[in-house]
C-alpha cells in the first residue's frame, strides 16, 4: 500500500515528501482522533482486498493555507500605527506588484513563444528538406528515424528536467494551481526552480512534437511569478530586496497568486476577462472588488506585454493583434454566421464532446493508475516520455505517408511547410498540415482553411490517432498542457461533422463553411475534458475574437459538462483526487445536514496555556505522532480538571519563531535590553519556517515559561458543537480558515475542525461517503 | 430637519414610510444604545448649523436581508428527511426558474423595444412631416409646439405613473438593485406593481424624447421578474401556484434576484458575461460556482429570447444579430484598428471622461439636494418632468434649426428621418441625426457614420447641451436609465476629439476614422459617471462585438474611475448615500483596526428566554422605541442576575408566526390534536409578515409560555468582544449576516452587531468618520 500511495504524490518522490515537509516547515496535522481513525482504517483496509488506487483516501501530507489574518496584538499595533497615507501607499504598491506580475508573465509567455516558434520552425524545416530529398531517392525510413530521434532527444531533455529536478513542474500545473487557490499548500509549487523547469520543460515538450500545448503551463508560471514578485525576495537565491514585507503572509500572497494565474491565462489565450473568471471560478472564497480590479489589471498588462513584444519581434511594432500564445484567428461574422436552427446541432456536438471527453478522462485515469503503480522511478518516466515522443513521430509519419489526401497548392494557401510527398506537383499532403506542424497552427488551419482543404477520411483518422496520443501524453513527466490537444481533437471531428452535414444537405448555404463546426467541436471536446464553464466560454470567445459565438459556445460547454459529469469528473479533478488532496468544493454535500461539528471535529485537542512551560511546547511540537499545526490557547480554571476556556489560537509557525528567538518570560526579566519581538521577525521566517528539530533548547530553558498573550490570535472563529456540517463548511470556506475551534456552551474547547475534516465527506454514488485519511 | 430627511426616501412619500414598514413587517431595528446615541446626535445636530443634506446620516428605515439560513430544528429535520434525489430535483427546479427568469426578462425587453421603436417611429414621422411642411410654408413654431407638447404629454403619463403609483420605480433602479444585492431590503422594490410602472414608465420616457435610455430599467425589471418567478406566487395578485415553496426565504430569493439582474443586463446590452460580472461586482458576498453557472444560464436565455423574438418581429427569423436593446453595431477590426501609441491618447480621453463624469455627478448631486428640499410633492415632480420634456424638445429644435451642418444625402446613408430643413436638396441636417432620433440610434450614428458626417461645431454644441439635459433629467420622477445618455455625450465629444486629431495630423491614416474615438469617449464618459469597472468593460466589449478594443476600454475606464473618484463618488453611490442606505462596502475602512466589537455593537440587547412568557414576547415586539428584529435566546443561570448564556437566536418574523398560530406550551398540552407548526407556515407568511399590532393575544394567553427551542437558530455566529472591526466586518460580509451576537468569554450575550453598526463607519477626508443614525 505504502508503495502505491507514496508514488501518487505530485513530487513523485516518496523519500522526498518527509524531507520536503520538514524543510517547508509544514508537518502533518494529525489530531488524536484522526490518528485513531487512521489506525482503524489501516486495519480494515488490510482485511479487505488491496485497493488498486487511492482516490478514496485523503492525504495528510497537504497543509492548508492560512487565509485568516492572525490578528494578534503585534498585528493590531502595527495596523493602528499606520496612517491613512500608509494604507494608500500599501494599496499603490499592490497595484505596482500586480503590474509587475502581468509584465513578467507576459515576458515569459513571449520568451516561450519566440523560442518554440524558432526551434520548431528549424526542426520542421530540416525534416521537410530531408523528407523532400528522400521522397525522390527513396529511403524515407531514414527521415522517420531522424524525426523520431530528434523528438525523443528533445523530449528526453525536458523530461529529465522534470523527473529529476522538479517533479512538481510536470503536467500543466493547472490542478496544482487549482489546489493552491482552493487553499491547499502544495510543496514547492511556487518556487523559482519550478518556474525554470516549467519554462524549459514546456519548450522541450512542444519542440519535441508531443501532443501538447504551451498554454496550460503559463497559468502555473504566472502563479510562480506572482508568489515571487509579491514577496520582494527569493528564498532560493537568498536575496531579500527589503520591499513588500507587508505582503509576507498567506492572506496577501494568495491574492497575488490569483492575479498571477489570471495573468497566465490572459497571456496564454489573449483573454484577460477569461483570466479573471478563471481565478474567480477556482478561488472565489476570497474575493472583493478591489482585488478583482487588480487581477484584471495584471491580466491586462500581461496580454499587452506579450502583444507588444511579439509585435516588436515580428517587426510590426505597435500592431496589437497577437494578444495570446494561441490565436484562433478571427471568425468574421459575415462569412461564418449561424442560425438558430443550428443550435440543436451544436448541442448534439456538445454531447459528443462530453462523451469523448469522458472517454479521454477515463482512459487517462486508468493510465494514471498504471503509472502510479509501475512507472514511478524517474528514469522510467524519462524513458516513457521518450517512447511517447518516438511513437508520436512514427504515427505522424505513417499517417502522412499513407494518406492520399492531396490538395492543390493554392496561391492564397498559407501553409508554412507543405509536404508534397507522393502528391503530384502543385499539390500538398493535407494530413501533414495537421500532423507536421505545431498544434497551434494545426488548430488554426482546421478553423480557417477553406472548405475542401481536408477530406473526411483524413480528419477521421487524425481524430482517432491524436485522441489516443494526447491521452497517452497527459500525465507524462514533462511540462505541458492539455488545452491545445483537446482543441485540436475537437476541431478535427468538428470539421468532420461540418463536412458531413454539408455533403448530406448540399443546398443549405449555412453548412458551407466547416470552420464554425471545427470551432464548436473544439469547444465541446475541451469542455468535455476539463469541464470548466464560465471562464472557458469567455476564454473561447476572447480567443476567437468574436462575441457572436458566445451563445453557442456556452450551450456546447454546458451540454458537454452535463454529459461528461454523468460518466466521470473533469481531468483536473481526477488528478487532484488521485493526489488525495483535501480539496474543498463550493458547498458541503447536500445530504450532510445530519452531521454536526461534534461528529466532524478532531478531538481531543492539544491545548496550550496562555503562560506555558517551554518544555511542554517543545514536546508538543516535537511529537511526530500528533503533528498539529494550530493550538487553541486556554485559560485553565484553578484546581479544576475541566477543559480550559478558549482565549486564543496560536500556530506552530509562530511558536517556532518564538522558540528560535527565545522569547521566554525569565529571559525578558533578566535581559531588559532584549529587543522586543516584532511582526518583522515572523515575516522574515515566512514561508519556510524551520522544523522544530533544528531549534536547540537547553534543559534550563525547558523550565522557562513562555507568554503567548501577545502572539496568539485572541479572537479565533468558533462554532458550537451542534452546528451542522453545511454551516461549518460555509464558515470555513467563506473565510478561508485553516483551524476552526469547536466550543461548548461554556466557551471551553472541545474540538478542532480543519480542512481534512471537511474534505473527508463527499457525495458518492450511494449518498454521503467518507474518505479515509492516510499518512501519504 | 425631519422635513428634509423624510423626503430623501426612495419612495418619496413620508407618510408612506411608516405604513410601508408596518405592511412589510419590517419595523426598525433600534437597540437601546443606538437609541441613546441617536438622541445624543439629535442634540448635537440641533446645536450645529442645519445640515443641508443627509448623506452623513444612516437611515434606520432599511432592514437587512437574512442571507444566513435559520438552521433550526424544523429546517434540519426537513433537510434530513430529503433524499439525494429530492436535492437533485431542487437543483433542477433552480435551473428551470433561472431559465424562466431569463425567458421572461428577454420577453419584457423585447416588448419594450418593439413598443418604443414603433411609438418613437410614429412620433418622429409625424413631426418630420410637420417640419417638412412648415419649412416650406414658414411657421416652424407650430412644429416646435407640436413636438414639445407631445413630449410633455407622454412624459406626464410616465411621470404620473411613477410619482403617484410607485415612486420606487423611478430612475434606473440600479442603485436599488445594488442595495438589494448588497443585502438591504428596499421596500416594494421587487413587486409586480413596480415592474408594471417601470415598464410603462420607461416606454413613456423614451418616447417622450427625454435624454434617457431604456437599458438601466431592464436590470430592475429582471430582478423583479426573478423575485416573482422564484417564489411561485404573487402576493399582490393573491395567487399561490404551490410551487417553488422551498425557495421562499431570503437566502434563495437573493440568488435568483442576482440572476434576474444579470439577465436584465444581458438583455439590455446583449452582454451575458457582462451581466454575470455585474451581479458579481455588486453582490459577491454570496457566490459559488453553481450559482454563477445558473446566473450565466439566465443571462444567456435572456439575450437569446430577445434576439429570437426580435428576429421574428423583423421578419428575419433566426438571424441572431440583435442580442441586446442597444446594439453598438460591429466595429470591424480591419477598418478601425488602433496602434499602441494611441494608448496615451486614450488614457487622456479617459481622464477627460473622468473629469466630465465627476462634473456631471457633482451637478446632479446639487440638483438632487435641491429636489429633496423643494420638489417633493408628486404633482411638482410631474410638472418638473413635463418641463424637462418640453425644454428638451425646444433645445433640440433650436439646435437643429440654427445648425448649419448640412451633409449630402449619400445613397449608403441609413438615416431613417433625414431632416432637410434649410439645407439644399440632397442634403440633410447633421445635428438632427443626433437630436431627432432615439438616443440609441444617435449613439450608433456617432460610432459608425463615415468620417465627415458631422462637423466639429455640431458635435461640440451637441455635447454641451446634451450634457446638461441628461444631468437635469437623471433623478426626475420618471423611469429611465443614464447609460445611453452618458454614452451619447461621450460618443459626441469622443468623435470631436477624433476629428480634431485628424485635422491636426492629416497624414496619419490611423486618425482617419473618428468612430473609434467616439467609442473610447463613450466608454470614458460612462465610466466617469457610473464608475463601474470590470463589468462595464465586458459590457462594452460585448456590445461592440469586438474584443480587440477590450484593452483600451479597460484602460480608459480605469483612468476615468481614478480621476473621477478624486472629485466625487459614482452617480449610483451618490444616490445610495443620499438615501442613507446602510450599504456595506467590500472591506472595513483601512484605519478601523482600533475599533472592536465592544465599541461597535449595540448594547444592552433584549434577550428572550428559551421558555418565555407570551406577554413578555408581545410587549417586546410591540415596543416601538426598541424595534428589534432579532433576539438572542439565553439560558438564565438560576438565582443569578448576570446576563444569560447564549443558546440561540430568533427573529421577529418567526415570533410573529408563532404568536399567530398560538404555539403556546399550555395549549399544546390541552389540545393534543393540534397540528404541529411546520416550516411551511413560515414560508407561507414570507415575505410580508403581519405587524404585531394585527395579532390579537388575550389576557389569558399572555400568561401562557412559549417554547422557542424548536424554532430558534441554535447556532448563531458569535464573536468575542475584542474582535477588531475589520474582522467582524469580514465575517458579517462574507456570510451575509443580519445579526451577529457578541459574547464574553463565558458565552454570555453582551451585544448585537447589525448592518447599521458596521455601515456607520467609513473613510472620510479626515480619516475614519462615523455616520449618524436617524429614524428617517
**Strands side by side in the biggest sheet of chain A:** 8-10-11
The helix fraction of chain A, in percent, is: 55-70%
Total number of strands of chain A: 18
User: For the report, how would you describe the main beta sheet of chain A?
Assistant: 3 strands, mixed
Number of helices of chain A: 30
Largest interchain contact: A-B, 87 and 87 residues
Verbal overview:
2 copies of one chain form a homodimer. Chain A has 776 residues and is mainly α. A 3-stranded mixed beta sheet of chain A has the order 8-10-11. In chain A, strands 13-14-15 form a 3-stranded mixed beta sheet. In chain A, α5 (84-137) packs parallel to α8. Chain A is elongated, with a radius of gyration of 28 Å. At the A-B interface, α4, α11, α12, α20 and α21 of A face α4, α11, α12, α20 and α21 of B.
Write the layout of secondary structure elements.
2 copies of one chain form a homodimer.
Chain A: H1 2-8, H2 14-24, H3 32-47, E1 57-59, E2 63-64, H4 73-81, H5 84-137, H6 140-165, H7 174-182, E3 184-185, H8 192-207, H9 216-231, E4 233-234, E5 239-240, H10 250-269, H11 272-283, H12 289-313, H13 343-374, H14 378-402, E6 406-408, E7 427-429, H15 430-435, H16 439-448, H17 456-473, H18 483-504, H19 515-530, H20 534-544, H21 550-567, H22 571-578, H23 597-600, E8 608-609, E9 611-613, H24 614-622, E10 630-635, E11 645-651, H25 652-660, H26 665-670, H27 679-685, H28 699-702, E12 705-707, E13 718-720, H29 725-735, E14 739-743, E15 749-754, H30 755-759, E16 761-764, E17 767-770, E18 772-774
Parallel strand pairs in A: 1-18, 8-10, 13-14
Antiparallel strand pairs in A: 2-3, 4-5, 6-7, 9-12, 10-11, 14-15, 16-17
Helix pairs in contact in A: 5-6, 5-8, 5-9, 5-10, 5-12, 6-8, 6-14, 7-22, 8-9, 9-10, 10-11, 10-12, 11-12, 11-20, 13-17, 13-19, 13-21, 13-22, 14-17, 16-18, 17-18, 18-19, 19-21, 20-21
Amino acid at each position: 500500500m505504502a508503495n502505491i500511495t507514496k508514488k501518487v504524490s505530485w513530487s513523485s518522490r516518496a523519500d522526498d515528501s518527509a524531507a520536503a515537509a520538514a524543510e517547508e516547515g509544514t508537518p502533518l496535522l494529525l489530531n488524536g482522533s484522526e490518528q485513531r481513525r487512521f489506525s482503524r482504517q489501516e486495519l480494515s483496509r488490510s482485511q479487505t482486498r488491496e485497493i488498486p488506487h487511492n482516490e478514496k483516501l485523503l492525504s495528510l501530507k497537504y497543509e492548508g493555507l492560512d487565509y485568516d489574518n492572525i490578528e494578534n496584538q503585534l498585528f493590531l499595533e502595527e495596523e493602528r500605527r499606520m496612517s491613512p497615507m500608509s494604507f494608500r501607499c500599501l494599496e499603490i504598491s499592490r497595484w505596482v506588484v500586480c503590474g509587475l506580475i502581468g509584465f513578467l508573465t507576459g515576458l515569459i509567455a513571449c520568451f516561450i513563444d519566440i523560442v518554440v516558434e524558432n526551434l520548431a520552425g528549424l526542426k520542421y524545416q530540416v525534416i521537410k528538406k530531408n523528407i523532400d530529398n528522400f521522397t525522390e531517392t527513396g529511403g524515407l525510413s531514414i527521415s522517420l528515424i531522424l524525426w523520431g530521434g530528434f523528438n525523443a532527444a528533445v523530449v528526453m531533455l525536458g523530461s529529465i528536467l522534470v523527473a529529476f529536478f522538479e517533479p512538481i513542474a510536470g503536467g500543466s500545473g493547472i490542478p496544482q494551481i487549482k489546489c493552491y487557490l482552493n487553499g491547499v499548500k502544495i510543496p514547492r509549487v511556487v518556487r523559482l526552480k519550478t518556474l525554470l523547469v516549467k519554462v524549459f520543460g514546456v519548450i522541450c515538450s512542444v519542440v519535441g512534437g508531443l501532443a501538447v500545448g504551451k498554454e496550460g503551463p503559463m497559468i502555473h508560471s504566472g502563479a510562480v511569478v506572482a508568489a515571487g514578485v509579491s514577496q520582494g525576495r527569493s528564498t532560493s537565491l537568498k536575496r531579500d530586496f527589503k520591499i513588500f514585507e507587508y505582503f509576507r503572509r498567506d492572506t496577501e500572497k494568495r491574492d497575488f497568486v490569483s492575479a498571477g494565474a489570471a495573468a497566465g491565462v490572459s497571456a496564454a489565450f489573449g483573454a484577460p476577462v477569461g483570466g479573471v473568471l478563471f481565478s474567480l471560478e477556482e478561488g472565489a472564497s476570497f474575493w472583493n472588488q478591489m482585488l478583482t480590479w487588480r487581477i484584471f489589471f495584471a491580466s491586462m498588462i500581461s496580454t499587452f506585454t506579450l502583444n507588444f513584444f511579439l509585435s516588436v519581434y515580428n517587426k510590426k511594432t505597435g500592431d496589437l493583434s497577437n494578444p495570446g500564445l494561441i490565436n484562433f484567428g478571427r471568425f468574421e461574422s459575415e462569412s461564418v454566421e449561424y442560425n438558430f436552427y443550428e443550435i440543436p446541432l451544436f448541442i448534439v456536438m456538445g454531447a459528443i464532446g462530453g462523451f469523448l471527453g469522458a472517454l479521454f478522462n477515463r482512459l487517462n485515469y486508468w493510465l494514471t493508475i498504471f503509472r502510479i503503480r509501475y512507472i514511478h522511478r524517474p528514469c522510467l518516466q524519462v524513458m516513457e516520455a521518450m517512447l511517447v515522443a518516438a511513437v508520436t513521430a512514427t504515427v505522424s509519419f505513417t499517417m502522412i505517408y499513407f494518406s492520399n489526401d492531396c490538395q492543390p497548392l493554392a496561391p492564397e494557401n498559407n501553409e508554412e511547410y507543405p509536404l508534397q510527398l507522393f502528391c503530384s506537383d502543385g499539390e500538398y499532403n493535407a494530413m501533414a498540415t495537421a500532423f507536421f506542424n505545431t498544434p497551434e497552427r494545426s488548430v488554426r488551419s482546421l478553423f480557417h482553411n477553406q472548405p475542401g482543404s481536408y477530406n473526411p477520411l483524413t480528419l477521421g483518422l487524425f481524430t482517432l490517432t491524436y485522441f489516443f496520443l494526447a491521452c497517452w501524453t497527459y500525465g507524462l513527466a514533462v511540462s505541458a498542457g492539455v488545452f491545445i490537444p483537446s482543441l485540436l481533437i475537437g476541431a478535427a471531428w468538428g470539421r468532420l461533422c461540418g463536412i458531413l452535414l454539408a455533403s448530406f444537405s448540399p443546398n443549405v448555404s449555412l453548412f458551407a463553411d466547416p470552420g464554425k463546426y471545427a470551432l464548436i467541436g473544439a469547444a465541446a471536446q475541451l469542455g468535455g475534458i476539463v469541464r470548466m464553464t464560465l471562464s472557458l466560454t469567455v476564454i473561447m470567445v476572447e480567443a476567437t475574437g468574436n462575441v457572436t459565438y458566445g451563445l453557442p459556445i456556452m450551450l456546447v460547454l454546458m451540454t458537454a459538462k452535463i454529459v461528461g459529469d454523468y460518466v466521470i469528473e473533469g481531468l483536473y479533478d481526477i488528478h487532484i483526487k488521485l493526489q488525495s488532496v483535501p480539496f474543498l468544493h463550493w458547498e458541503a454535500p447536500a445530504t450532510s445536514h445530519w452531521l454536526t461539528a461534534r461528529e466532524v471535529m478532531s478531538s481531543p485537542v492539544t491545548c496550550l496555556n496562555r503562560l506555558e512551560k517551554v518544555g511542554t511546547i517543545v514536546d508538543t511540537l516535537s511529537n511526530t505522532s500528533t503533528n498539529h499545526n494550530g493550538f487553541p490557547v486556554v485559560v485553565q480554571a484553578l484546581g479544576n480538571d475541566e477543559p480550559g476556556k478558549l482565549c486564543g489560537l496560536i500556530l506552530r509557525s509562530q511558536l517556532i519563531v518564538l522558540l528560535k528567538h527565545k522569547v521566554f518570560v525569565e529571559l525578558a526579566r533578566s535581559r531588559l535590553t532584549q529587543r522586543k519581538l516584532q511582526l518583522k521577525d515572523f515575516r522574515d521566517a515566512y514561508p519556510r519556517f524551520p522544523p522544530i528539530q533544528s531549534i536547540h533548547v537547553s534543559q534550563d530553558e525547558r523550565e522557562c515559561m513562555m507568554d503567548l498573550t501577545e502572539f496568539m490570535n485572541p479572537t479565533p472563529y468558533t462554532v458550537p458543537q451542534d452546528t451542522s456540517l453545511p454551516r461549518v463548511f460555509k464558515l470555513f470556506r467563506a473565510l478561508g480558515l485553516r483551524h476552526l475551534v469547536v466550543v461548548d456552551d461554556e466557551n471551553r474547547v472541545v474540538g478542532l475542525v480543519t480542512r481534512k475534516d471537511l474534505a473527508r465527506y463527499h457525495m458518492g454514488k450511494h449518498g454521503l461517503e467518507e474518505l479515509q485519511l492516510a499518512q501519504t
